[in-house]
Amino acid sequence: MNVNDLVQQRIEAARHRIATTKRTRAELTEARTRGLTHRHTQKLRTLAQRDHAAGRGKSSPSGA
User: Fold this and answer.
1) What is the pTM assigned to this prediction?
2) pLDDT by residue (tens digit) across 31-58?
3) Which parts of this chain are annotated as the region Disordered (predicted)?
4) How far apart are CA 64 and CA 43, in angstroms?
């Protein structure tokens, strides 16, 4: 093997590491986004239920 072959191997290994890192970051970003969206939706749902329950407790329908 000559020096050029070794350099080519190192370049290919670096490209592979970079591609793997990019793919991993993209997967983590997607999972984080899904998790944040789910958590935000759940929070809004909980707040809406709390407001709805609080609204029922304050007013009586016929004033009896």
Assistant:
1) 0.60
2) 999 999 999 999 999 999 998 888 864 4
3) 30-64
4) 35
> Would you give the distance in Å from CA 5 to the centre of its chain?
41
d(CA 6, CA 25): 29
**Range(s) of the domain holding residue 2:** 1-39
The answer to whether position 56 is within a domain reads no
Q: Let me know if residue 64 belongs to a domain.
A: no
For the chain, the domain total comes to: 1
Q: Is residue 1 part of a domain?
A: yes
**Which amino acid type is present at position 58?**
K
Query: Can you give the three-state secondary structure of the chain, one letter per residue?
Result: CCHHHHHHHHHHHHHHHHHHHHHHHHHHHHHHHHHHHHHHHHHHHHHHHHHHHHHHHHCCCCCC
Determine the Cα angle at 14 with ends 10 and 20, to 5°: 145
